[in-house]
Amino acid sequence: SNFPTPVPGVWSVTNNxxxxxxxxxxxxxxxxxxxxxxxxSLKAIPSQYGCAPITFLLKNKSTxxxxxxxxxxxxxxxxxxxxxxxxxPNRGFQNITLIAFDTSICNLTDTMRxxxxxxxxxxxxxxxxxxxxxxxxxxxxxxYTPWAKVRWTPSEGLSxxxxxxxxxxxxxxxxxxxxxxxxDTLCMKxxxxxxxxxxxxxxxxxxxxxxxxxxxxxxxxxxxxxFLKNKSTYYDYMEWKKDHNNLxxxxxxxxxxxxxxxxxxxxxxxxxSVCARGAMVQKTLTMSKPFPTYPSNVVMCQNNPISVKVIGxxxxxxxxxxxxxxxxPTAPSQTFIPKQNGKIDITVTDTIGCTxxxxxxxxxxxxxxxxxxxEFTFCRQKDKFLEIITxxxxxxxxxxxxxxxxxxxxxxxGTYYFQGTDANGCVVKDTITVLNxxxxxxxxxxxxxxxxxxxxxxxxxxxxxxxAFDIKIFNRWGELIYxxxxxxxxxxxxxxxETVPIETYPYVISYQGAKYKDQELNNTFSGNVTVVR
Length: 533
Hints:
The chain is mainly beta. Helices cover 0% and strands 47% of the residues. It folds into six domains: 36-119, Immunoglobulin-like (Sandwich), CATH 2.60.40.10; 123-198, Immunoglobulin-like, CATH 2.60.40; 206-288, Immunoglobulin-like (Sandwich), CATH 2.60.40; 298-365, Immunoglobulin-like (Sandwich); 375-436, no CATH class; 441-531, Immunoglobulin-like (Sandwich). Strand 43 and strand 44 form a beta hairpin. It starts with 35 loop residues before the first strand and ends with a strand.
């Protein structure tokens, strides 16, 4: 009866006691299983590999145990029941041991071991490179894993983009390289390296372009927008000025909307802190527009010439349209005689091709001829004067004579010039011709007495405006006894030196008057003259 009696009254405490029942025994045979899993704490997935620095989660999956002992190496022991976190700062292998045991009955134990591998692409990168001078440089990156792979991006300016320390050459601009190092466990390290290799003599440069940013130019027609872009290299600071006034700081490019008319100076100053040097450049932008002075509109008198002029700067070009009105439509001044009202379009182009347009209008005042007839006649021997009447004018002038009357009385033939000014101020000129024309007149006496008494001793004719004359006198038998073509002839009544007898003598007279309007007035007639004593 040495069996244990966990339940009072089940067993007799006296050996060999009577009335005992069968004994009932229960044995608990325990079992302990030690088990854990490793997780990358960042990814939360089972893993025994990682890249240092890394923290692993050791998750206890043991069964049947009441106590635990973790041995994570380097003398680090913990008795935590639940999962634990272990940090691996460096590359290497680490043995992890978990002992699970049950001391409640049989002191049972179990052990699990695992190895965790932490890779590390260990590398000592270098600070950014800043150098004043154009000599190539070689970085001093230190790799702790000889078989690590290196990649530089981009490869521009590098002697070899797959080695740790390539030669970096001057390529005319600052560079930023991205460097990756990969070890045999595929662990990677990254870094960026800024390389500033500066020219000790920096040059400031910028360009001015049109608003489309396609054409570099420095003269524009106003209004227009322009684009300014910095083309300098090797600088840490920039400053823009406009006509010596501050404009922008550290702005690489910008638009100028409708800069002012005329010339504007832009300055760009750059400073390189690497070489502690600066540079400045200045450029002039010209915004051009011609501003000519156009002629004013005019009202002109009919048939009077118009003289107009466009006033512009030297080098301006001109075009007057319609061009058919002018001998040279590209001259700055013009003189023409318009036939009717109209307008003229004028285009002015300056020295860089910018244009301006103006319009000149003119109106014509119609004037009538002051004197409708241009030719007049009068007979000076008969008429005292010829009266010429013109249309009404404010003032009148006749030449020759400087007469200022209307009507004008003319007493001499000739050419007369008229000038009058009407109510519109128009000066009208006209010319007339006055001809002296009298119809030819002829008187022939019927008798004369050639007796030398001083009375009617000569036979002669009288008249005026005769320009040609011929007389023939005959006797009764038709014999020509006298002939003359002198209008002022005088016949003394003799034939061959002898006085002709008293009787009647026939004559034939032909004469011609003054020519008038291409017409000749010719006359021939016959008659008789009687000789008396």
